[in-house]
């Protein structure tokens, strides 16, 4: 019996019966259904790779929980360190074949750039959250968003903590 067959047997015997538990833990530590599915597939892959380190004399769930939380924690840390594309100068052609810059998007004329459903949803949230979301979509940094919200008198302090709050509230 080779190593892969041995891992497959161990995985089928100990891990597959606990797949609902694994999914629930991933869901508990996720911010969205999509993120949960990403974590779930990554966790199953990593557990398969590490199944030969499991001691069958011990309970499986504490071992699984430890692996799941470590993988999710590392994934979040890795995600936060990633360099994202700066969309400050990204150009999008409009319907009139004109070049439109995201930075040119003003928070009062956003309706032409979004579908009716998104415009309706944006109309349902508080002005500070709406403006923060639109500025984020336009590529503004957190410091710039905080400054814009403060200058518009939508928040009381020029703080990125306040801006993050309004982004979080607006995205829920």
Mean pLDDT: 76
Series of secondary-structure elements, N-terminal to C-terminal: HHHHEEHHHH
Q: Spatial order of the strands in the main sheet?
A: 1-2
Discrete helix count: 8
Largest sheet, if any?
Answer: 2 strands, antiparallel
% residues in beta strands:
under 5%
Q: Could you explain the architecture of this structure?
A:
It is a single chain. The chain has 172 residues and is mainly alpha-helical. It has two domains: 3-81, Rna Polymerase Sigma Factor, Chain: A (Orthogonal Bundle), CATH 1.10.1740.10; 91-170, no CATH class. It is 60% helix and 3% strand. It has helices at 3-15, 19-28, 33-50, 60-81, 116-123, 127-137, 142-151, 160-170; strands at residues 91-93, 99-101. A two-stranded antiparallel ribbon has the order 1-2. The N and C termini lie far apart (51 Å). The relative contact order is 0.07.
List the SSEs and their pairings.
Elements: H1 3-15, H2 19-28, H3 33-50, H4 60-81, E1 91-93, E2 99-101, H5 116-123, H6 127-137, H7 142-151, H8 160-170
Antiparallel strand pairs: 1-2
Helix pairs in contact: 2-3, 2-4, 3-4, 6-7, 6-8, 7-8
Compact summary:
This protein is mainly α. It is 60% helix and 3% strand.
Main attributes of the structure:
about 170 residues, mainly alpha, Rna Polymerase Sigma Factor, Chain: A, 2 domains, two-stranded antiparallel ribbon, 8 helices, about 60% helix
